[in-house]
Design a protein that fits this description.
The chain contains 19 helices and 35 strands. By secondary structure, it is α+β, with helices and mostly antiparallel strands. It binds sulfopyruvate (SPV) and manganese (II) ion (MN).
Length: 638
């Protein structure tokens, strides 16, 4: 008997589009497409293969339909999201949860039946008069133990086009899936458009069906809400990873280049606006990815891949001085999609680009002139602080040669970094895997900035910078981390960095480029080439190593006075941080693992002891002799 869905699809798709779908011979896929077609009722369907002409078709449509506008550089376009649709909508992003499943307190969820009913009613006829695009991707390199097949259906050519820059093509891989039922589905509709932007923001919903591995996103355009393979699939992947004992992380992957052409790979987790992309783009190093990584244990090593193949990066403050590599790509003949920047005379501008701006143009508020105010009376900046650029990684001269290696790259170190004005030293290494997971990863916090709405300097709890995307209880997520390297003889070293430390007058203690040095120091540590000082919170660099690295890397003198200011251990602040975290883990997290509380307590005792011996602020040369001996022992063991 012919498959019912195929009969229906044949009746609704043009001959060539039907052929492209049916060649995949996938019943679950046919079901998903047929159901969507029935419910959303588009005018036509375009099945996009990996062929260049199909990819170009989608881009052309984005421009023809006005979702993107061509800039003077014919390879560049700009897209605008609605004025109030400029970021991930956390409140309306929910898990569809079947009765009896507990995801933990911090997780936003809705009863599955209720949520499905609601979203399906929103989806009814939502694509009327529009074209529906079906695209196939591979999360992670193709033909790899890491790869996850994924399909997106959307009525936005902008979304489908962005995905082409951001993900590896997966149509060919779909022809030979190991398990034909094992793939993620994302269904998106921008909903009714007025002046090219989603009009019904009050009906904006992003629902994630954790059982059926389907993401629904409606009445929104912002890529973080609609490009299903960013944070939405990350949520599904975190569950899959926990089931299968690997990690799905909000992390960059980069190669740091050490002496004699040695490359050591690092992953790094930083909340938004904390320097993640610029770290992964440090000149002289090589990038694999800037946002999402999968980590697996393979043959006694931890290996990582970039889930994506492009960058959807924050453009504010990208300028030739701070981000020369990004600047180069943005000024090259390669393809770029800008979003929510300022356009004047076909040229793109954004805040912090180091240029003088025209006083009028078009931006995320429509026609814009300097001083324009919004409904609330706020002055509208030239570009949104979350304005973005979307580009392919292969256009970067600093792309690592192993970026698409199906086996991933071995991870030497993991870096956690937040925005912290007064507590953490600029760089330190944990004593062990468990100490790093708990006091660095699970203790990550980030302060709000002047650019964020609300009060400045408010700390938010950001464990592993992945809290927003957790789809399992935090307890389980942390336990998975702790167990991840069990029994490995050389687990990755864990480091914490802080680019935002200030003195008591509020001045930053570090230059923007100091991170170029920190990564080199971490690379040497992973390879056992430099000693370090032991402090109560971790190993910190010795002055002489930094002085040498500052000279080599930045051609700068690094004074002992700077070192002392930056690496003085701030005991009261560190104790307060432990208080905050203990409070959160004891009261807001259900069944916090005892090891976590114990490791925080041990850190507290070390801090209290140092306080007794040396006072509140301990300069780096005051590490007690006895500890220095212990540190040497540790060095010997390495
Ligand atoms: C982030 O905010 O962490 C991003 C952009 O990478 S989004 O796609 O919105 O998550
Ligand atoms: Mn991110």
């Amino acid at each position: 008997m012919p498959e019912k869905d195929l009969v229906f699809l044949e009746s609704r798709l043009s001959e060539d589009n039907f052929e492209k779908l049916q060649i995949l011979r996938n019943r679950k896929l046919n079901r998903f497409v047929a159901e969507t077609l029935q419910r959303c009722n588009p005018k036509s369907v375009f099945i996009c293969t990996d062929a260049e002409e199909d990819i170009q078709y989608v881009r052309r449509k984005a421009i023809e339909k006005g979702e993107e506008t061509l800039l003077k550089n014919p390879n560049q376009t700009v897209h605008f999201d609605g004025y109030y649709d400029q970021a991930r909508d956390k409140a309306n992003t929910k898990y569809l949860v079947p009765p009896g499943t507990d995801l933990g307190a911090s997780i936003n969820w809705i009863d599955k039946d209720r949520g499905l009913n609601e979203i399906q009613s929103f989806l009814r006829n939502i694509m009327r008069g529009k074209e529906m695009y079906v695209r196939f991707f591979s999360l992670g390199p193709t033909n790899s133990v890491f790869s996850i097949a994924a399909v997106q259906i959307t009525d936005s050519a902008y979304v489908a086009h962005s995905e082409d820059l951001l993900y590896r093509p997966g149509y060919e891989q779909f022809k030979k899936l190991d398990d034909p039922d094992e793939f993620f589905c994302v269904l998106h509709s921008a909903g009714e458009l007025v002046d090219g932007v989603s009009a019904n923001l009050d009906l904006r919903r992003i629902y994630i069906d954790i059982e059926d591995e389907i993401v629904y996103s409606v009445n929104t355009q912002y890529a973080g809400n609609t490009v299903g393979f960013k944070k939405l699939s990350l949520r599904l992947t975190i569950r899959k990873a926990a089931r299968e004992s690997w990690l799905a992380e909000h992390m960059f992957v980069m190669g740091v280049h050490g002496p004699q052409d040695r490359v050591t790979y690092f992953t790094g987790a930083f909340p938004s606006f904390c320097g993640k992309t610029s770290t992964s783009m440090i000149p002289g190093e090589t990038i694999i990815g800037d946002d999402i990584a999968y980590l697996r244990r393979i043959n006694g090593e931890i290996r990582a891949v970039n889930v994506e193949s492009g960058i959807f990066g924050i453009i504010q403050d990208v300028n030739p001085d701070v981000d020369p590599l990004i600047w180069e790509v943005l000024n090259s003949p390669e393809e770029v999609i800008y979003s929510n920047i300022l356009v004047a005379d076909g040229l793109p501008y954004w805040c912090g680009d180091g240029r003088t701006h025209p006083e009028r143009g078009r931006n995320f508020s429509g026609e814009w002139i300097q001083g324009k105010k919004d409904k609330e009376g706020n002055v509208i900046p030239a570009s949104h602080k979350n304005a973005r650029y979307t580009v392919r990684l292969r256009n970067f001269p600093n792309l690592d040669s192993r970026a698409d290696d199906p086996a991933g790259v071995p991870v030497g170190g993991i870096i956690y970094g937040g925005r912290d004005s007064d507590t953490w030293v600029p760089v330190q290494q944990s004593f062990s895997w468990g100490h790093g997971v708990i006091t660095m990863g699970a203790s990550l916090e980030s302060e709000s900035t002047a650019a964020t709405l609300g009060q400045e300097g408010v700390r938010s709890f950001q464990p592993m910078s992945n809290l927003d995307f957790l789809s399992i209880p935090l307890r389980r997520y942390i336990e998975n981390h702790i167990l991840f390297t069990a029994g490995l003889s050389r687990p990755p070293l864990i480091f914490a960095v802080n680019y935002f430390l200030k003195d008591k007058d509020g001045n930053y203690l570090n230059g923007m480029k100091d991170k170029y040095v920190w990564v080199k120091w971490m690379e040497l540590r992973v390879n056992g080439e430099v000693g370090a000082r032991q402090t109560p919170t971790g190993f910190i660099p010795k002055y002489e190593h930094l002085a040498r690295l500052f000279k080599e890397v930045l051609q700068q003198e690094y004074t002992e006075a700077d070192y002392t200011k930056q690496f003085t251990l701030r005991i009261p602040e560190n104790l307060r941080k432990i208080d905050r975290l203990t409070q959160i883990y004891e009261t807001q997290v259900k069944d916090t693992p005892q090891t976590l509380l114990q490791i925080l307590e041990e850190q507290r005792s070390r801090l209290l002891q140092a306080q007794e011996e040396h006072g509140d602020y301990v300069p780096p040369d005051k590490s007690p002799r006895e500890r220095r001996r212990r540190q040497d022992d540790v060095e010997k063991e390495r």
